[in-house]
Amino acid sequence: MTHILVTNDDGVFSPGLLALKCALEAVGRVSVIAPDRNRSAIARGITIHTPLHIEQVELEDGSLAYATDGTPVDCVRFAMLGLLDGIPDVVVSGINMGLNMGDDVTYSGTVAAALEGVLLGWPAIAVSQQHMGDPDDQWDGRHYEFDAVCNFVPHLVPLITQNRFPRNVLLNVNAPARPAHDPPRARVTRLGRRIYNDALVLEGTDGPRRRYTIYGERPGYHAQAGTDFAALEVGEISVSPLHFELTDEQGMDALSGLLEDHGLGHAEDQQ
Questions:
Q1: Would you say 33 and 84 are in contact if contact means Cβ atoms under 8 Å apart?
Q2: Domain residue spans of the chain
Q3: By three-state DSSP, how is residue 113 classified?
Q4: How far, in Å, CA of 15 to CA of 233, rounded?
Q5: Residue 142: left if φ>0, alpha if ψ -120 to 50, beta else—which one?
Q6: CA dist list (Å): 83 to 12, 66, 71, 118
Q7: Rounded distance, CA 128 to CA 191, Å?
Q8: Whole-angstrom Cα distance, residue 17 to residue 129?
Q9: 3-state class of 262 per DSSP?
């Protein structure tokens, strides 16, 4: 039986985590390790200067989970290093309350946990759900409908655990608040581009200290066909395959040429 690690960045008692855990029990044995509180937007942060605490807690359905004061990435490493009864076969992170699309994936603890799974050699999925109400109230779990994405994601687990699926790729899944089709349609997408509307605003002073906010209006995005944003616009589930290959091969060639032109290149770069 497939052993599935479920984690998240919203915290172990998030309704999204419970919904995902229950859905995945149809396709495998599920273990849960998650932060003991909300650790959203922590990206790939890890805990290296202090010991980590962990305890068993009871979820709303009566099942047991591990809660830690660490980050989502720490949770995945706990599983890899032997905290559980057996090493998991796949990592599924979520369901995040709120979307993780476009440039936002670089900040996301949800995506970071899945990425850590990939870096450790496991298949991995990150799952996020759009809010149905006012986005400023997105932490209210009452305004999320997880049924569609919970019906969809379990089908992905056997697909990505097959040997022919590349192990250096994670699937970033984003589900619309209200799918346009029943059953919901999924579309393979690329990441879109965000438009951030941030501003430096002085909120007050306290002697020599000044207090600022630096995040402004809700971000927008570039309207481009084939992106995760475009899929959500028409009520489809977006599935974006992501990898961690950050080296720009063309950039290497261009940089080698520049260094050679200025007599700064290494001999191996000039061959």
A1: yes
A2: 3-194+222-270
A3: helix
A4: 25
A5: alpha
A6: 16, 9, 15, 19
A7: 14
A8: 11
A9: coil
Phi, psi of 81 (to 5 degrees): -85, 0
Q: Which two tokens stand for residue 89?
A: 């076969």
Nearest residue to 152 (alpha-carbon basis) of 23, 249, 31, 60: 23
Closest CA to 122 of 87, 70, 94: 87
The token duo for 112 is 């970071």
Residue 66 tokens read as 């591990």
Distance, in Å, from the CA atom of 220 to the CA atom of 57, rounded to the nearest integer, reads: 38
Cα separation, 174 vs 127, in Å, equals 6
Backbone angles phi, psi at 22, to 5 degrees: -65, -40
Which candidate, 61, 57, 58, places its Cα nearest to that of 20?
Answer: 61
Q: What are the pLDDT digits (tens) for 73-123? A: 999 999 999 999 999 999 999 999 999 999 999 999 999 999 999 999 999
- Is the Cβ–Cβ distance between 67 and 57 less than 8 Å? yes
CATH number of the structural domain 3-194+222-270: 3.40.1210.10
Residues 158, 164, 121, 26, Cα dihedral to 10°: 0
Place of tokens 């994936």: 105
Consecutive 10-residue averages of pLDDT for the chain (271 residues)? 96 98 98 96 92 97 97 97 95 97 95 96 96 63 87 96 88 96 94 89 93 84 93 97 91 92 72 48
- Residue 129 CA to residue 127 CA, distance in Å, equals 7
In this structure, are residues 108 and 100 in contact, taking their beta carbons and an 8 Å threshold? yes
- Examine residue 95 and say whether the peptide bond preceding it is cis (omega within 30 degrees of 0): yes
